[in-house]
């Protein structure tokens, strides 16, 4: 077997990587790869407009409740968008990050039983973030749980 035959597969791999833009794949860049959130525990991750543009997170609600999503940015100059989506991917609430702001909070949303997703997209720059998901916020105080 000559050298040309050995180099062909390597060249093909290099072309595939170049065509993909060299983006760093972390497994959570699609809704089907969404990382589960543990309620009561903040989640840390990073998005970057140049190599890890999108992160998806998911959580499940067992009974109707309210949800509050807050993100805290390590680099407040990042350009970003945060969207809460239902099980079909339809947007329920969205906020665009105002450069310079240390955090973003989605408006409180009333959720029924089911699985929900949070999509975090970097549109400019990069930042590590801390995501805080709170279920049963202030508007649900004093409301008895459905039986």
Can you list the strand order of the major beta sheet? Answer: 1-3-9-5-6
Count of discrete domains? 1
Helix content: 10-25%
Please trace the helix and strand order, writing H or E for each element. HEEEEEEEEEE
The total of beta strands comes to 10
Kindly state the mean pLDDT as a whole number?
A: 81
Q: Could you tell me how far the N terminus lies from the C terminus, measured between alpha carbons in angstroms?
A: 73 Å
Q: Whole-number radius of gyration?
A: 19 Å
Question: CATH class, anyone?
Answer: Mainly Beta
Unreliable stretches? 3-23, 140-147
Write down the overall geometry: globular
Q: Which architecture does the CATH hierarchy give at level 2?
A: Sandwich
The main pleated sheet reads as:
5 strands, mixed
Structural class: mainly beta
Query: Total number of helical segments?
Result: 1
**Which range does the strand content fall in?**
35-45%
How would you sum up this structure, described in words?
A hairpin with a 5-residue loop joins strand 5 and strand 6. This protein has one helix at 3-19, and strands spanning 35-36, 43-48, 54-61, 65-73, 79-85, 91-96, 103-105, 109-111, 114-124, 126-135. Residues 3-23 and 140-147 have low confidence and may be disordered. Helices cover 12% and strands 44% of the residues. It is mainly β. Strands 1-3-9-5-6 form a five-stranded mixed β-sheet, with no helix packed on it. Strands 2, 4, 7, 8 and 10 form a five-stranded antiparallel β-sheet that branches. The chain has a single domain (25-138), classed as Jelly Rolls, CATH 2.60.120.380. It contains one helix and ten strands, in the order αββββββββββ. The chain is globular and about 40 Å long.
